[in-house]
Amino acid sequence: MTKERPLWWAEEPFNRTLALAAGASSVRGLQTAFFVPRILAGAQALNMLQSAVAGIAAAARVLIITDQVVRPLAERVAAALRPAGHTVEIWDGVLPEVPVELVEEGAKVAQEFAPRLILAVGGGSAIDAAKMIWVRYEKPDFDFRQINILEPLGLRQKALLAAAPTTAGTGSEATGAAVLTEDGQKMSTTHYELVPDFAVLDPAFTAGLPPQLTAYTGLDALSHATGAFLSHWANEFTDPLALQAIRLVFQYLPRAVADGGDLEARAKMQLAACLAGAAFGNAACGPDHALGHAFGKLFGVHHGAAVGLFTPYTFGFLARVSDRYQQLADFLGLPPAPARERLTALFRHYVDFTRTVGGPVTISELGITRPDFAARLPELVELALADGVSLLSRRPVTAENYRRLFQYAYDGLPVDF
Ligand SMILES: [Fe+2]
Predict the structure, then answer these.
(1) Count of domains observed in the chain
(2) CA of 307 to the centre of ligand 1 (A)
(3) Which candidate in 42, 126, 231, 342 could, as Cys together with 283 as Cys, close a disulfide (CB 3.0–4.6 Å)?
(4) Tell me, what CATH number does 406's domain have?
């Protein structure tokens, strides 16, 4: 694959080896760090935000980063802050997938306005864009492609970061991760300093989300929580968050999909997405995210639908190196059974749930013909292997096992290798 764009830190071969080595059991566990934002949740979230901003400065300059679709919600946030004496500017230039050029544009606005708080209002794209705009604002000479967890960034010299999500899925309001697009390629970066200072969870902000998007973003949250629980990076802090997120998604996502005006279900899903974000942000997501990124890119499938499709296929794959799936099956109340049967029951449990909310569970059902799938399989495997998430997999991934995972997902078979 020829690349004309500059390499990102995690693409350098040496750094990839380093990331793999960090996952070795002898290295892991020597230190546990846990980063979360201060969380302001509920119908009074905007009032709490007003007090929080007053704690930064009596008259703070606040730059809201949003897109044109959710701008009306950004206006509501601004209207809640202005009476307290804060100066608020709204920049609505965020685009889906966050092209890197957009970061420069937003950073220019930030340099001119000089905010004390950068506040993202929107879905994952707005929050991820705000993270990078913030980095450019704080450190104009630093190339954000070189962000890596080994070196401190030195943020928060000029501003703090807050995020008010309008979808319940990415969990970006609770993680240090950001996904951008450069030359058509999705690039991700992560750093603990990028975890926002405040996550503002007003359930009314997600009420307008249509049923399909509600389902897909909810499946993304389920994938994050499940991946975090099964990850070898899971720890005592991330486990309860992951399990509670899983419980909430199973209980409330069908309700939120069936009735978008069910504010209790919306509120619970918003919490589930944030919990799942905090879980995978401090542990890791599973190989379903590498498979889903590759598949979503080549076949134009929504991120949540794509990762949700692959989640059940990771169970049998990871079971070769860990019996954590047994704890997940216990948690979900699946009856005791021999290992193989229990894995299949867990697989079916997730598949049935995904179907219930309208998510795809096989590649074939998306109308992708077998010849077309076979023709693109090598590229799918190559993309999935190159994905940064592949470096975090509990079971080491190879081209051969990715190829088989894609094939099992094409046919809808529980993984047995
Ligand atoms: Fe995701």
Answers:
(1) 2
(2) 7
(3) 231
(4) 1.20.1090.10
